[in-house]
What we know:
The protein contains 13 helices and eleven strands. With 362 residues, it is of the alpha/beta class. The chain folds into two domains: 56-124 and 140-173 and 264-302, 3-Layer(aba) Sandwich (D-Maltodextrin-Binding Protein, domain 2), CATH 3.40.190.170; 177-262 and 307-359, Bacterial extracellular solute-binding protein, family 7 (D-Maltodextrin-Binding Protein, domain 2), CATH 3.40.190.
Amino acid sequence: MKKLLALLLALTMVLSLAACGNTAPAQDAQQPADTGAEDAAAETTGDDPYADLGDFTMIVGHAQPEGNPRTTSMEKFAEDVAAATNGHVTVQVYANGQLGTEKEMLEQVVAGTIQGMRGGQFDFSPRLLMFTLPFLTQTRAQVTALLQSDLAKSVCAEAEAETGTVIINLCDAGGYRQFSNSKHPIKTPEDLKGLKMRTNGMKTIDLTFQAMGATTTSIPYSDLYMGLKTNVADGQENPWVNVQGMKFYEVQQYFTEVNYQFHPDPFYVNATWWNSLPEEFQTIITECATEMGTYNDQLIDETSQAARDEIEASGAEIYVPTEEELKAFQEAVQPVYDQCVEEGICTAEEIAQMQEIVANAQ
C-alpha cells in the first residue's frame, strides 16, 4: 500500500513538472514575439510614410519613338515617381503609339481607360492652340515664359471642366518646327502654292499653310512616313528631333529652317483618377512632372542640332531663309491671328498678353 501511494505521488509530481515545463517556456517565448512584431511594424511605418495610402498604377501613352526627348523624359518621370512614393505609384509608359493615335489616346484618358497621355493633341482643349500661333516666339526663353505664364495656367485649368482631364504639366513638344517637301526648295511663301502639306489636323497648322497657298491633308503621326513615301502628301512640318527620330528625311528631300511654330506638350491625366489619389501622391507626381518638363526641354535643346546634322548628312537639302525672306513668311501668315480670334480660340486681348510675355522674356 505504501509502495502504491509512493508511486502515485511520484507520478503526480512528474505530470506537474511536465505541465510547468510546457507552460512556462510558451509564455516566455510569446512575450518577446509580440514585442518584436510591434517594433517591426513601427520601424516599417517610420521608413515608409506612405505605407497606409495604398498602391496606384498610372498607364501613360504617347506617340514618340525611343530616343526622342519625350520618351526619355517620360522614362525619368516614371523612375522619379516610383522612388519618391516608395513604389506605391507605378507609372507604365507606352511609347511609339502603342496605345493608338494621339487623339485615340486622349479619348482613352477622358474615358478613364488609361490614366494619362502626353502630346500636342488639342481636339478637346482647343484653347491651347493660342500658343501655336505662327512666329509667336523666337527663343527658348520666350517659349518657357509663355508656357509658365499665368495665362497658360488659366487655359490648362479650363481642361478639367471641359474634358474631365487635369493637365499636370505643359512643356515643349519638340522644338521649333520646320517645313519639308519632296518637290522643290521652299524659299518664299509662294513656293508653297500647289503643294499638299500634311498636318495633324491642328487648326493653326492648316490655317498657316492655307494662308500661303498650300492645301492640307490630315495624316496620323504614326502613318506619316508611309504617307510621305507614297505621295499621299508632298510635305510636312515637324521639329528636327521628330524628323530625325521618325526618319522622315528618307522620304523628304527639301527642308526649310523656318522656326515658324512650337507646340505645347500637355500632360493630360484623367481627372477622376487624379482626384482619387491621396494629396501626398498628387503633390509628388506634380513635382516630378515639373522636373520632367524641364528635363524634356533641356533634351530638346541638346539634341536638335545633332538631329539637324544627321538630316543634312543624309543628303537632304536644308535652306535657311534670309532675314528678308523670313519676314515675308511672317507677313503672309498674319491673317491666322485674326482667324483664331474669329473662331474663338483666343481673344485679341490674349494675343496682346502673349506678345507682352514674349517681349519681356529674359
